[in-house]
Amino acid sequence: MESKIQNQSDDSQSMDVETEPEEPIMTPFEFFMSLPRNVPDPGQTHLPPKRRSTPKRTLVLDLDETLVHSDIAPTQTYKEVVSFMSHGRLCNVYVSYRPFLLEFLKAASQKFEVVAFTASQKAYADQVLKNIDPQRKLIKHRLYRESCYEYKGNYIKDLRVLGRDLKDVIIVDNSVLSFAFQLDNGIPILSWFNDPEDRELCNLVTLLDELNSAPDIRPALKASYDLSRFG
């Protein structure tokens, strides 16, 4: 289903067989300017409390076009077929994995509490994540569309639902719009579809190592990206 935000390349509309009434397409700038300025605190947290053994920092990872790419038809590069039920229908999608995905997750899980946060349906996301991390040793928690804030047909990942100190939270997403409420917590990553030479996840390991020593990751990310200028 096509996103209502022009050039938005996130997973907020992926793996959804429902259709919605057409609305005028907005530019990213128009979307940011239209956002409510005082969004109520979600109140309920969607993750369990940290354990003593839990790393201090939390790394939130988007799924589609950040870690994987899925198609409804076979491609030359797909690795696995994922089947799931959606609205009473059996759906099959063909999934490709971004280069160095497992190496990245193994490195990240040693220093971060890793959370997969997707705007896709739980039935689809669980099957993909089961293939990536069958024993759930690398990705400790999963959040889905139900944990997102829906606004004008798009899904925003309000990091307050994590119940973690935001000075210790990093989100990696191919769409800045997905973390529009906490721009200074985000690392925008290039969308991935099928490039076998992609090295974004390798580069990300180096950046995360540098950020991990900062007392508050937000000033460090603001200095690197300054995404708040869009808000």
UniProtKB/TrEMBL annotation:
Bias (Polar residues) ranges: 1-16
- Kindly name one Pfam family recorded for this protein: NIF
Source superkingdom: Eukaryota
UniProt KW Hydrolase keyword: yes
All copies of domain FCP1 homology, residue ranges: 52-211
UniProt region (Disordered), positions on chain? 1-21
* The keyword Hydrolase is annotated on this UniProt entry: yes
Q: Name one GO molecular function term.
A: phosphoprotein phosphatase activity
UniProt keyword terms in alphabetical order: Hydrolase, Protein phosphatase
Q: Name one GO cellular component term.
A: nucleus
What does this gene product do?
A: Probable phosphatase.
Family membership noted in the UniProt record: Belongs to the CTDSPL2 family.
Q: Which NCBIfam families match?
A: HIF-SF_euk
Q: What is the protein name for this chain?
A: FCP1 homology domain-containing protein
User: What organism, scientifically named, is this protein from?
Assistant: Blepharisma stoltei
Q: Could you read off the lineage of the organism from its UniProt record?
A: Eukaryota, Sar, Alveolata, Ciliophora, Postciliodesmatophora
